Amino acid sequence: MTQHRRARAMWTGVLxxxxxxxxxxxxCSGDSGGDSGAQEFTFTFAxxxxxxxxxQKLANDYMAANxxxxxxxxxxxxxxxxxxxxxxxxxxxxxxxIQTTPGSGDARGLVGLAEAGFLEPLGxxxxxxxxxxxxxxxxxxxxxxxxxxxxxIGSVVASLGNPFRMGVTDFTWPENMTDLYASCDTFAxxxxxxxxxxxxxxxxxxxxxxAIAATRVxxxxxxxxxxxIDGKVTFADSKGWIDTLQTVIDLxxxxxxxxxxxxxxxxxxxxxLSGGTSVGGFIPSGAAIEIAAAAPPEANFQVEPFPxxxxxxxxxxxxxxxxxxINAASEHKDAATKFLEWMASDEAQQxxxxxxGELPVSAxxxxxxxxxxxxxxxxxxxxxSYTTLPNNVWPNPAVYDALGTGVQGLLTxxxxxxDVLSAMDAAWDQ
Length: 430
What we know:
By secondary structure, the protein is of the alpha/beta class. It contains 18 helices and 15 strands. Helices cover 42% and strands 14% of the residues. The strands form 4 sheets. It has a 5-stranded mixed β-sheet with strand order 2-1-3-13-6. A 4-stranded mixed β-sheet has the order 14-7-12-15. A hairpin with a 2-residue loop joins strand 4 (139-140) and strand 5 (143-144). Helix 8 (202-218) crosses helix 10 (239-253) and helix 8 (202-218) packs across helix 17. 53% of the residues are buried.
């Protein structure tokens, strides 16, 4: 509750200083004339647990403020979300509004979906929210196909109260790998684990590995993705990527993951963090708010950086991770457009921050994050020690799939580091 009160206070100041970049409701696209009176549309979004999604809360708020509107929501499991949405779009039965992601490196990536003709071009409001310099992740041929929602931190969501629930009273978040492995021993001895990982869900093994790669690859070579695009480097020959995957193996061998990690689903993370048997999970920063709803107040969730190798510098992933798009085949585009316009309003952006915990894309740079879950990484944001989520820039979903499924193979011992990286290179070049 303290965080929500602080969020409201922050927004009072934020909206005053960010008027120039505020959400352009005055310039919203008008009614297309396709609907009148009662309106309805469908809305599909990904979910990783059985807790109420922030998207469901936002849909409920919109309907409460607009009694003539009916939104049918379709929460879809995250581990199969991209494939499910693509299948529905191809079959012609996808929802009117679809949660997507920037770029083309994910199965739900809006660039690939737009190029296939599945998405409707959006208007000036969506375009005004696209972060400067990242237009290629949101646009095709100068048209915007995804409305940014957030500025997400991809690192570790940690419950600093869970150590006490496991009987460990002197824990602080490790700043180097030596301390991290010592913590793994401590929590394993206490019957728990430092990390909870959905080892059977490629989206989570992929996100975990990218969070580790932030320090092993991108801290030293921020333009690594561009070098891969230019053909100057490969995954298989990259010391940073080799070290990243070796770290995954070392974490498993050191008992840093929960028992049976290779078979774990997203419920392993939710249950571990809310139930007090694990300290951290490799999940988007906003997931802390959802999980906190199922945990006692003393859980004390924070966003923490995954430690660099001893002697290295901290580095995290931070970028827009979620967008909303409109199905090109929708018969309710007017109603869907009005919803997206509302989602860009100051009111909805504040609600989105409070419900999801994700920083609002429109004003995060002006926010005072003291006392929020983001306080541990404020310095990293301030000095630019972060890079965009790598797979947003990758050329196709197959690369990320090769990473996620490949790391599953590392956890089961069925694949080698070279197997995984060679498969990523092959997917990149296909």
